[in-house]
């Protein structure tokens, strides 16, 4: 790999590393697992980078590689990968902005998402990241229509989980 390509990769990774951290948080439940998955995703991104053609945004391509890596490792392990406990990822909020109701709603939503399958989690994750259906479809390797249908089904599942 040339030095220019290496510098481009490092720059892109640094600019978009939060994507990888979010995926890791979704598919792991402790700091060590998070670090291991982050490292594995970074290795897979590095290996695949020379083949990145720029036909999509780097971030979209990164989502796809990160999610595919996490899902592949999940399936290989043949055990449930618990998501990170909500309490360990609470963001610092200014005291005057604190709203306990919003925090409780978020906690309920995280718990509901934990009950979904691995692909459905990825779909919800991308949806909550404000990705449009075209980007979601491209990232997950499905058609846009399929992404919409799956999202409607996942929304219904979440409604059922949240309002039994």
UniProtKB/TrEMBL annotation:
Domain RNA polymerase sigma factor 70 region 4 type: start-end pairs: 110-158
Keywords, ordered alphabetically: Sigma factor, Transcription, Transcription regulation
InterPro entries assigned: RNA_pol_sigma-70-like, RNA_pol_sigma-70_dom, RNA_pol_sigma70_r2, RNA_pol_sigma70_r4_t2, RNA_pol_sigma_r2, RNA_pol_sigma_r3/r4-like, WH-like_DNA-bd_sf
Transmembrane regions listed in the UniProt entry: none
Pfam families: Sigma70_r2, Sigma70_r4_2
Domain RNA polymerase sigma-70 region: 14-78
PANTHER family reported for this sequence: RNA POLYMERASE ECF-TYPE SIGMA FACTO, RNA POLYMERASE ECF-TYPE SIGMA FACTOR
NCBIfam families: sigma70-ECF (TIGR02937)
Family assignment from sequence similarity: Belongs to the sigma-70 factor family. ECF subfamily.
Protein name: RNA polymerase sigma factor
Source organism of the structure: Sediminicola arcticus
């Amino acid at each position: 790999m040339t030095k220019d390509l290496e510098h481009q990769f490092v720059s892109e990774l640094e600019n978009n590393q939060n994507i990888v951290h979010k995926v890791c948080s979704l598919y792991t439940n402790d700091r060590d697992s998070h670090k291991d998955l982050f490292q594995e995703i970074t290795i897979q991104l590095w290996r695949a980078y020379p083949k990145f053609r720029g036909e999509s945004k780097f971030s979209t391509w990164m989502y796809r590689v990160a999610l595919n890596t996490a899902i592949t490792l999940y399936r290989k392990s043949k055990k449930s990968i618990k998501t990170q406990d909500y309490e360990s990822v609470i963001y610092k909020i200014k005291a005057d902005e604190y709203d306990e109701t919003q925090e409780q709603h978020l906690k309920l939503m995280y718990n509901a998402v934990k009950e979904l399958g691995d692909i459905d989690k990825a779909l919800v994750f991308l949806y909550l990241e404000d990705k449009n259906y075209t980007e979601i479809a491209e990232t997950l390797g499905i058609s846009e229509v399929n992404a919409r249908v799956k999202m409607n089904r996942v929304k219904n599942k979440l409604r059922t989980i949240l309002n039994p």
